[in-house]
Task: inverse folding
């Protein structure tokens, strides 16, 4: 089976950048998704510039609990921002998006600005995913359909569809299945996507490997050392990559998985 392992939040904090960079260098992960509005983005960008052999994507960020800044001019993305001019909470974004109170053109403007910020710095962007997986919301999915062709990007993370523990009781599971079909109709993506719920799923690596089918899978993680849950994911993803190779699975980048 072909497996690609991606680190999200690349740029979140100095320690998470260091952890992700270490995983790229030792082969524990295959891709890193740049978070342009995060405090340590410049640190991540500097690594990417000097290590072009690795695969990079954009971790599209449209909600950030007031901790993350927009890439576009604030005057162009006002419906995405809180009173302090930062990207608002996930709850706010979801509610306004479902009510039709987020301007679709402003979503397009922010997505374009985030991709351009990395591309104009000389980084080849091969795929996109999103913070809190907001790209499964219809208004964001539609924005991707309009924006990504302009940048020549044709790979997008699918909605999570592989679980170690049953998820059928969650409304988001069924909503995700519907949106996943729309993503697959338009973009190249893996057959499966799994991301552990760190505090709820421990020792997931063996269970995941035992259930793999001969297709393609992306596994997501958030490596770090300063926060306990990120440290857990840092350790877990290294263990998983070792076990996957030992089981003769092929670990490849986003470019090579599809």
Result:
């Amino acid at each position: 089976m072909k497996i690609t392992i991606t680190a999200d939040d690349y740029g979140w904090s100095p320690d998470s950048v260091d952890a992700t960079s270490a995983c790229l260098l030792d082969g524990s992960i295959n891709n890193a998704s740049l978070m342009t509005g995060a405090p340590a983005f410049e640190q991540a960008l500097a690594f990417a510039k000097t290590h072009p052999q690795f695969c990079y994507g954009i971790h599209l960020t449209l909600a950030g609990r007031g901790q993350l800044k927009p890439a576009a001019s604030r005057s162009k993305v006002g419906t995405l921002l809180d009173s302090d001019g930062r990207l608002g909470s996930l709850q706010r974004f979801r509610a306004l998006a479902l009510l039709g109170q987020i301007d679709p053109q402003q979503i397009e403007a922010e997505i374009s600005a985030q991709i351009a910020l990395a591309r104009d710095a000389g980084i080849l962007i091969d795929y996109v995913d999103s913070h809190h997986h907001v790209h499964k919301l219809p208004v964001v999915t539609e924005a991707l359909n309009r924006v990504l062709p302009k940048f020549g990007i044709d790979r997008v993370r699918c909605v999570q569809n592989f679980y170690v523990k049953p998820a059928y009781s969650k409304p988001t599971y069924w909503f995700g299945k519907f949106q996943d079909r729309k993503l697959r109709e338009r973009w190249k993506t893996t057959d499966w996507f799994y991301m552990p719920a760190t505090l709820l799923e421990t020792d997931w690596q063996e269970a995941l490997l035992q259930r793999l089918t001969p297709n393609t899978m992306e596994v997501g993680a958030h490596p770090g050392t300063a926060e306990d849950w990120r440290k857990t994911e840092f350790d877990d993803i290294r263990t998983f990559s070792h076990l996957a190779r030992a089981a003769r699975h092929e670990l490849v980048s986003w470019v090579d998985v599809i």
